[in-house]
Specification:
Layout: H1 14-28, H2 47-63, H3 87-90, H4 111-123, H5 134-145
Helix pairs in contact: 1-2
Length: 147
């Protein structure tokens, strides 16, 4: 299970976008709070951040013609077999505006993590969509961010 760096969401192939949606849905549902070495950092924050991240994933899915279950757009929803979150549990940092979680929703999603995600995608033989290869993205990031 991995939450890809949010800057990569528009570049992930359909298989990974759909997989990411399944993983985030699981985290919002029955997997919330369960230990997992790769995503434990998510549980240090309110579920509102995961909801905002999920919105990015679902909006990208819709842009590509996929139709995620509309229930997931309710920030209190946790899946068909889980009780909804209370407003208190859901957190108050859900009102996302660009820059509100600057530079990313999760502080752990920094430039180092972006490169780690690119390495992981490369090792899996993944190809990016909407903007060239992983090598080209590395060149762009080096020019734009100096990483």
């Amino acid at each position: 299970m991995r939450l890809w760096h949010q800057e990569l969401i528009p570049y992930l192939d359909d298989k990974r976008i759909l997989g990411l949606h399944r993983e985030v849905s699981a985290l919002r549902g029955g997997a919330w709070g369960r230990k997992h070495s790769v995503v434990d950092y998510v549980f240090r924050y309110s579920p509102a951040r995961l909801y905002v991240y999920h919105l990015l994933v679902m909006n990208e899915m819709m842009r590509r013609g996929f139709k995620p279950d509309g229930h997931w757009y309710n920030r209190l929803y946790r899946g068909k077999n889980r009780p909804a979150l209370t407003l208190l549990e859901a957190g108050t940092d859900v009102y996302y505006t660009p820059g509100a979680f600057s530079p990313s929703i999760y502080p752990e999603h920094d430039d180092r993590y972006l490169l780690e995600c690119l390495d992981n995608l490369s090792a899996k033989g993944a190809e990016l969509v909407n903007g060239g290869s992983i090598a080209e993205m590395r060149v762009r990031l080096a020019a734009e961010k100096g990483i």
